[in-house]
């Protein structure tokens, strides 16, 4: 029997920004950014104890505004980046920035959930999508990213590279001085009929972190960051360890876990020596079915984000707009196939 989902509420906050705590590989942590026009918005660090099924949190104020996207640095557990909507002056202007979280004592032990107020994220550097190739000065004002600043995505293995998606532009950033400065080193403009707006983005976890994919309407496009030239891919929510497992989420309140062995670098069952594998076993591996593994319907509102855990590649979290965070696991039957 599979484990029951763990459901956690964000206490009267709406939210659509969710990220795995990438640099934390010993504990199952996720980051959530809230959206409120009346209260000071927050970044919440959520910790899930797999042994006790308990959820604890540490909260940081995000006074810059509503958090639309959040991503964690892959090497530094205290560094994050967000795309936010500045609601302080009711100007509705988007910005993006790199921040530091005060995690003293939280890295070596469990989170202290009594530290729930007063602490703020510390701004390190602004990410202005319209800037030139000059480095950004820490603490400088955000000139504005326009109304379609959709995403910020860190490279899978390096703190020094990230990508922002702004309107129909892809910006490749070189991040320096532990997040305190950044400069644009590459740019792609996507052309198309009418207004082109790029949506959610993701680095491909293999190929040495050289490819980035982004949603464009009902399709997905990708670029090689070494040449800034486009390619086409299947999806953007790969499992970092088993890239044939792909997650999608949508406004119909569902999360879909799919099996796509045709795009995998090493499909289930290919770990064994091919010379020692019988024809029957080879046919079984090669005939692995593509398609939907499971549909999850634990949400009651639009699901805006889904993320794999950085510590346990069988665990993932999803976040719906009503502030419901759901933590699920890949079915055990799928796990067992990997070792067959």
TrEMBL record:
Q: Signal peptide location in the record?
A: none
Q: Which UniProt keywords apply?
A: Repeat, WD repeat
InterPro entries linked to this entry? Beta-prop_EIPR1-like (IPR059104), EIPR1 (IPR040323), WD40/YVTN_repeat-like_dom_sf (IPR015943), WD40_rpt (IPR001680)
Pfam families membership: Beta-prop_EIPR1
Q: What are the residue boundaries of the EIPR1-like beta-propeller domain, all occurrences included?
A: 6-231
Looking at the keywords, is Repeat present? yes
Give GO terms for biological process: protein ubiquitination
Q: What residue intervals traverse the membrane?
A: none
Q: Which SUPFAM superfamilies match?
A: Putative isomerase YbhE
- The yes or no answer to whether the keyword Repeat is present is yes
What family does the database annotate?
Belongs to the WD repeat EIPR1 family.
What is this protein's record name? EARP-interacting
């Amino acid at each position: 029997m599979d484990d029951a989902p763990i459901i956690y509420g964000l206490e009267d906050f709406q939210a659509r920004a969710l990220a795995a705590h990438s640099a934390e590989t010993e504990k199952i942590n996720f980051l959530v950014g809230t959206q409120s026009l009346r209260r000071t918005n927050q970044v919440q660090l959520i910790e899930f104890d797999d042994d006790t099924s308990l959820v604890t949190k540490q909260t940081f104020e995000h006074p810059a505004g509503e958090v639309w996207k959040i991503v964690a640095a892959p090497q530094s557990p205290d560094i994050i980046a967000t795309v936010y909507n500045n609601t302080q002056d009711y100007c509705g202007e988007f910005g993006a920035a790199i921040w530091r979280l005060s995690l003293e004592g939280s890295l070596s032990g469990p989170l202290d959930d009594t530290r729930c107020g007063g602490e703020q994220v510390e701004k390190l550097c602004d990410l202005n999508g319209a800037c030139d190739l000059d480095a950004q000065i820490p603490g400088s004002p955000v000139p504005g990213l326009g109304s379609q600043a959709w995403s910020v995505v860190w490279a899978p293995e390096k703190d020094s590279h990230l990508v922002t998606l702004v309107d129909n532009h892809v910006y490749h950033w070189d991040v320096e001085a532990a997040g305190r400065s950044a400069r644009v080193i590459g740019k792609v403009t996507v052309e198309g009929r009418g207004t082109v707006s790029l949506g959610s983005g993701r680095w491909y976890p293999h190929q040495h972190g050289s490819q980035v994919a982004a949603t464009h309407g009902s399709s997905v496009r990708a670029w090689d960051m070494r040449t800034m030239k486009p390619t086409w891919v299947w999806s953007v929510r790969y499992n970092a360890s088993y890239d044939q497992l792909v997650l999608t989420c949508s406004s119909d309140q569902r999360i879909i876990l799919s099996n796509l062995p045709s795009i995998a670098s090493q499909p289930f069952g290919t770990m064994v020596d091919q010379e020692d594998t019988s024809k029957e076993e080879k046919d079984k591996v090669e005939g692995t079915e593509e398609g939907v593994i499971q549909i999850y319907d634990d949400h009651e509102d639009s699901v805006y984000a889904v993320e794999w855990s950085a510590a346990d590649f069988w665990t993932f979290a999803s976040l719906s707009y009503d502030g419901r965070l759901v933590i699920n696991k890949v079915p055990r039957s799928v796990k067992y196939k990997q070792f067959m």
